[in-house]
Amino acid sequence: MKILDAQFVTGVVGERDVMYDGTPHIAFIGRSNVGKSTTINTLLGRKKLVKTGRTPGKTREINFFKVSTDITQDVYFVDLPGYGYAKVSKTDRQRLRGIIEWYISHPASDLELVVLIIDAKAGLTDFDKQMFELMDQTGKNYILAVNKIDKLNQKGINKLKKEIKADVPNAETGKNVFYYSAFKNKNIHLLRDALFGGLKEKE
Q: I want to staple 42 with a disulfide (CB 3.0 to 4.6 A). Which of 3, 73, 135, 182 is the partner?
């Protein structure tokens, strides 16, 4: 499969037609500084499509990118604001959390899959676990993407896998949990295959 085109469409903070125009969404969420933007760029074979700001918590709206491949139907990659950054005010944190929860629980959007990205060194946070609960409650399909595994040795990876297996319902490596490094481009193809594997083929 080849990525033919990937373009920024729009940023939203509320109801817009792009939410439900029939194009499936693959949404990316995660704590600030987990490498969300780098992951999306690497998945698409781009360097600067999604801007990677030096200041965590920079994204304040839901950004839509339309992606075309040679095999599957078109899809939106949806970049949600990062959460949990300490230097963002409490009011802003609550507002960003509200945006994320509104999008995930939206009853009419074309949300196909949620990719929750975590930092391998930091592990799962309480808010990550709350996101899993929300996705279970709303019946959303999701994948756990564990980035920056190049920062851990094998012992650390094995420990993390045990923790994730205990905390994530039905966690199974290779099916709904993926360990990779966006920066090193390690195992990113496995995550890419999982994201596009559930989409319809072009007619």
A: 182
Question: What is d(CA 128, CA 145) in angstroms, rounded to the nearest whole number?
Answer: 12
The domain total for the chain is: 1
Give backbone dihedrals phi and psi of 194, rounded to 5 degrees, phi first.
Answer: -70, -35
Global pTM?
0.91
Please compute Rg for the chain using Cα positions.
Answer: 16
**Closest of 197, 12, 27 to residue 112, by C-alpha:** 27
DSSP-based helix, strand, coil % in the chain, nearest 5: 35, 25, 40
Lowest-pLDDT range, 25-34, 37-46, 63-72, 162-171? 162-171
Residue 202 lies in a domain: no
Query: CA-CA distances (angstroms) from residue 153 to 69, 120, 157, 158, 188?
Result: 35, 11, 6, 9, 18
Rounded to the nearest 10°, the torsion over CA 167, 113, 97, 144 is 30
Does residue 160 lie in a domain region?
yes
| CATH code assigned at 178 | 3.40.50.300
Domain annotation covers residue 203: no
